[in-house]
Design goal:
The chain is α/β, with parallel strands linked by helices and 431 residues long. The protein is 39% helix and 12% strand. It is built from 14 helices and 13 strands. It is globular, with a radius of gyration of 23 Å.
Length: 431
Amino acid sequence: MDFSELIATKAAKVGILGLGYVGIPLAHRISEVGLRVLGFDILEKRADDLNSGKSPIKHIPDASISQMLEAGFEATTDFSRSSECDALIICVPTPLDKSREPDLSFVVETMDSIAPYLRKGQLLSLESTTWPGTTKEVLLPYFSKAGLEVGKDCYLVYSPEREDPGNPNFHTRTIPKVVGGHSPHCLEAGLQLYGTFIDHVVPISSTDAAEMVKLLENIHRSINIGLVNEMKVIADAMGLDIFEIIDAAKTKPFGFTAYYPGPGIGGHCIPIDPFYLTWKAREFGIHTRFIELAGEINAAMPQYVVDKTVKALNEAGKPLKGAKVLALGIAYKRDVDDMRESPSVFVMEILRDWGADISYSDPNVPVFPKMREHRFDLTSVDLSPETVADYDAVLLLTDHNAFDYEMIKKHAKLIVDTRGKFRNDSEVVRA
C-alpha cells in the first residue's frame, strides 16, 4: 500500500521522536484514533517509565499512558526501528545556546540517528520551533544523501506544535494544526496524516511559511507580555492597580486582548522563539528592535521583583542578607511541573547571590530538578501555618491553585505578590 492507503486504512505506524511535553500528548491522540505509535527518546528511563504505564508529566495521568499501551504504543531508545514507521514526527527541544543563538543540536542528532533508516514511502514532519528555512536547509539534505526524492519517493512537512500544558480548554485534537509541505504532494500527505487525528488542519504554502507562523504566534505573546509588564511598573510607580486597569480595559468588545503581568516569562517557547527570528533576520540585514525590546523588558522583571522584595524587607526592618525567603511556585506557569526558563528560578538565584536564605514550595515540583544553568539543592517545603510564619518574606511567583492562599495571608509576615492574587489587600506588596 502507498502512504495514502496506509493512513486511510489506519494500517500506518507513526513514530514520535521525542517523548516530552509535546510528544506524549501527540502520541496519546494518535493512539486514540487507532494508528499504531512507536515512541523514541534518548532517555532510557523515560522509555522504561512509559512502557510500564508511568507518566513523566504531571498534567498527563498514568491512565492516559495505560490507554496508549493498550492501543499498541511502545517506547524505545533504538532509533534503528524508525524504519518500521510510515510517518515520523520530530518533537525535540530547540533551545538557545549561551550566545542566545539557535541550537538545533537535538534536531540534527535526531536526524543523524534516523538517517541510515530513511526509506521510500515515509513522511517526515518537524514540529520543533525553529527559524524559517530549517526544514528545507537542514532536513531536506538527509533525503538527498539517502538517494530519495522528496515529493516523489517520500514526503517532508513542517507543522508547528501548539500544546498549552495545563490548559483544560484546549487539547491536541481541538487545537487547529498548521501544515506546510516541501511540495504539493508533501502537503497533501501531511494534510492526510494530521487530518486523521486533528479536528481542523490549516494548509499553508510552504514549510518556510509554517515555520514563520509559529514564530509570529510566540513573538505576539512575548511583545504583549513585555508591554503589560512595563505597564505594571508604570502603574505601580503611580500607585495604580494594573490588574484593575486590565480588567476594566478588557470590557471593550473589540481592539483589546488582555495579557497579565508576572515576574517575567517562562516555558520553552516565549522566552526563546523570538530570538530564532532575530538571528535569522540578521542574514537579511534587519534589526528586530521591537522583538528585542520586549525580550529586554521581560528579562528584567526578576530583578524588579527582587528590588521590590529588598525594599519591603528594609521597611520591615530586616536586611536581605540572612533573611529567610520562601518562593511560592517555581514552575513557569500555573498548575504544571514544567521548569523550563521559569522566571521564578532567576528570582531565586538573585536572592541567593545577594545573601538571602532561599527556600521554595511547589506541589508540582517536589525536588528541584537538575538544570543546565541553574543549581539548587532544595526540596519543596510543605506549607503549614508554622512554616509560613517562619519566613521573613513569602514571594508568590507562580499562582498554583493548590496553594491555600487564605492560610498564607493569615500567617505570612510579609507577602510579595507578582500575580495579583492578593490584589485587594493593602498590606501585600505588589511586584
